[in-house]
Amino acid sequence: xxxxxxxxxxxxxxxxxxxxxxxxxxxxxxxxxxxxxxxxxxxxxxxxxxxxxxxxxxxxxxxxxxxxxxxxxxxxxxxxxxxxxxxxxxxxxxxxxxxxxxxxxxxxxxxxxxxxxxxxxxxxxxxxxxxxxxxxxxxxxxxxxxxxxxxxxxxxxxxxxxxxxxxxxxxxxxxxxxxxxxxxxxxxx
Length: 189
Description:
The chain is α/β, with parallel strands linked by helices and 189 residues long. It is 27% helix and 24% strand. It has five helices and ten strands, in the order βαβαβαβαββββββα. Strands 3-2-1-4-10-5 form a six-stranded mixed sheet, with helices on both faces. Strands 6-7 form a two-stranded antiparallel ribbon. The chain is globular. The N and C termini lie far apart (39 Å). Mean pLDDT is 86; it is low at 1-6.
């Protein structure tokens, strides 16, 4: 990768662990891997959380990308259960708290500087979770900016574009330090 941009701050070059839950979407997942391979930031490690795919998703990803960590389920983890397995892997492998977690959906595409942009935002903001603003590829309309939980008892929420009101983030592109992720204490599948 001769065109890789070196990250500006030699003092802050964390490993970015990408948690990617998948299930039987081989071609979609491979398109995601292409975006990931094209990133300008090199210190990226994919944790593919394959919840029982039977279409060869994990095998195809491992052929395209070296050094993939595959967590293999039986098809009963679903989304939160898959992310919980990723959380447990990070916790049990004693990953440095200053490294970074990026939670993504396999049906997202992103620009070459996506990870660098997330790192830039984290660099100056301790104890922060950064959510990407998503756009519908067909309509160009923004979506997944963040949610505002109006009623904690029922978890009733609405989408908001006012960053001061966001108290619930999509996992379609959520980046944070490992320590902050571990402090959240996981998911409830």
